[in-house]
Amino acid sequence: MSDLSIMPLLPEIILLATAIIVLIADTIVGDKRWLTWIGLAGIALAGGATYWLAQQPSQTFQGMAVSDAYTAFYRLVILSAAALGLLVAVNWLDAHGEQQGEYNGLLLLAAIGMTLMAASVHLMMVFIALEVLSLSLYILAGFEHERVTSGEAALKYLLLGAFSTAFFLYGVALVYAGTGALDFEGIAHGASRSPLFLLGVALLIVGFGFKVAAVPFHMWTPDVYQGAPTPITAFMSVGTKAAAFAAFLRVFVGALGVEKDTWGPVVAVLSALTMTVGNLAALRQLSLKRMLAYSSIAHAGYVLVGLAAANESGIAAVLFYLFVYAFMNIGAFAVLIALERQGEGDVQANQIRGLARTRPWLAAAMAVFMFGLTGVPPLAGFFGKLYLFQAAVEANLTWLAVVGVINSAISAYYYLRVTVTMYMADEEAAPIGAATRTTLALTTGLAALLVIVIGFSPGAWLALAQRGIHAILR
User: Cβ distance 236 to 196 under 8 Å?
Assistant: First the structure.
């Protein structure tokens, strides 16, 4: 313990200190909005620590977590999602009379678990981080305790989450039995084709598949996303996905890269199934929140394309795509929060009729997010999908790239249907109310701006993602 260094975990320590300060300040501060700004200040400090660590040589915490360029990029994605998650909730918490201190504290704790997953190089650390983020999100999913659907979402998430955790932990045990190691370096050296080891790998896929909402492990996603408070859904849809894919990539491409021929085809099939089921199910959804839930499943399928490719282009494309997806998805949910604030508990597709004439800026932002999620050039979502499909072609997975293109065309129907409804339908059913409040308007506008800006300079952001890929490639 004499050489114990906590510097690799400095961002997580800052977030933990911020969460404690927020909870203490909640009992002292009169204006609860200050709690949001305290949380944002902590996230900013954690971001600064991430940047500083990225300039230093790679550092390891007790062989269980590492601070390298790969970790830094995912911390950037997760911290961005956490900051937006705090901002979009300010008006919602006021309107619903919920506790800001508890919300902000739990969200910061969930962010700690997410960033720890990205930094983990040991399966036990992955498990600990997974539990930290999961326990926080179970509570947040049921945060709106007076609404039955919120409690139902929390219960479903808890039960299925515990079930998937058991699969993951059993997979860890079998991998250890087959290799005699839990650290990724040791697993890479001890990997074999023994039945015990391969069964462990299969169970790890099940555990990670649940967290990224891959088919057939996606059954919890629509109900939980629809039932949970919308700010939580927004943060969870991005943060959990980024954290799970960070660990997924590091385990499979890094520790299990030598066995790519074994798990690669399985992941490719999962990718095709996930994007197809997600898009086809989204076609028939009338609830916009539920539509975005199935959309999230489909996008997990797109990201799995990069994992199936498992080459430099694929890993960089995954990092880039998750970064732009964070702004597109949280932005879309922010628009729903703006509409729900007027009394719409679950906005239906026909309730945004004529929104462009009643609230033009809100409709314009939503159109940007829908076009981005579809993959319409020159927005950032187009380049994200382009890089993923190019990586698949390079890895001789042309069939998977074709499936991805077809699914993107299918998704255009339900994404563009939202835009058509806002701009071309009658306005008789539009939910009209007071103007969107400053923090929510700022969040929505910032997310839309970034989707556009990144789309006009994708190369610079891709280069940033490429800096981290060598940390896991062997």
Answer: no
pLDDT of residue 471: 64
Which of these ranges, 60-64, 127-131, 265-269, 385-389, has the smallest mean pLDDT? 60-64
Q: Is residue 2, in this structure, part of any structural domain at all?
A: no
293 pLDDT above the threshold of 70: yes
Residue 56: count other Cβ atoms within 10 Å of its Cβ.
Answer: 11
Q: What is this structure's pTM?
A: 0.91
Gap between the Cα atoms of 299 and 213, Å rounded: 10
Structural domain harbouring 44:
7-471
Residue 311's SS3 state is coil
From residue 23, alpha-carbon distances to 45, 82, 91 in Å are 18, 17, 19
Cβ within 8 Å of residue 301, ≥6 positions away? 214, 215, 270, 271, 272, 273, 274, 275, 276, 278, 404, 407
- Of 380, 373, 383, 378, the closest CA to residue 408 belongs to 373
1 inside domain: no
Structure tokens belonging to residue 414: 């339900």
Residue 38 lies in a domain: yes
Number of domains in the chain: 1
Q: Which of 103, 75, 102 is nearest to 8 (CA)?
A: 75
Q: Is residue 356 part of a domain?
A: yes
Q: Which of 265, 267, 261 is nearest to 248 (CA)?
A: 267
Residue 98 — very low, low, confident or very high, per pLDDT cuts 50/70/90?
A: low
Query: Three-class SS of residue 122?
Result: strand
What DSSP letter does each residue of 29-51 carry, written as one string? -SSTHHHHHHHHHHHHHHHHHHH
- For 312, the enclosing helix (H) or strand (E) is helix 312-340
